[in-house]
Amino acid sequence: MTDAQIRLVQDSFSQVEPIADPAAAMFYGRLFELDPSLSRLFKGEPVAQGRKLMQMIGAAVRGLDDLPRLVPVVQQLGLRHAGYGVQPAHYATVGAALLWTLQQGLGAAFTPATRDAWTAVYGVLAETMQAAAREGAVSVHPPPGRPSAPTLHHPTPRSHPHPQGAEMTALNNPGGRLNAALVLAVAPTALGALLCATGVIGPVLL
Q: How far apart are CA 85 and CA 185, in angstroms?
């Protein structure tokens, strides 16, 4: 995950934010089309749930500029979602719906480089969540000498503010049995396989 990839993810998401409500509606429509059984896991009024989705993605995307602050939040999300009984197959479906939504919202701006950037960023975040879930740790702080997360490339800080207070609270808020942060939990290999099947991208090996 490079500075350039982080910039592409942040810049492309800024183009989606003005159409946040319809983008969220497209996401859920695609998600339930891919797996109708997932509808039972999402609680609450659809428009409000969609806004939470976009707020959480936005907080995570902006948090990429401050990985030491973001990683513990993502680890806690991994632990929480393990407790919900979320299955790897669900994560892949959510990831496919997200990238499909980005493709629809961005159109020609969803270039191969942008697609690759989102795949790289979500791969790192997904592994961070799943590593925390596998360990089942009570605390996200590891014993001395043990890494707390996969090795991450720390980006050069950019000019816009890092996520603060309310944004990080939004990212870390469960908001029901299954929240939008599930998007971060896409298993990289499953994501590649499912995106091939749905026609979003060609064969890949992540």
A: 13
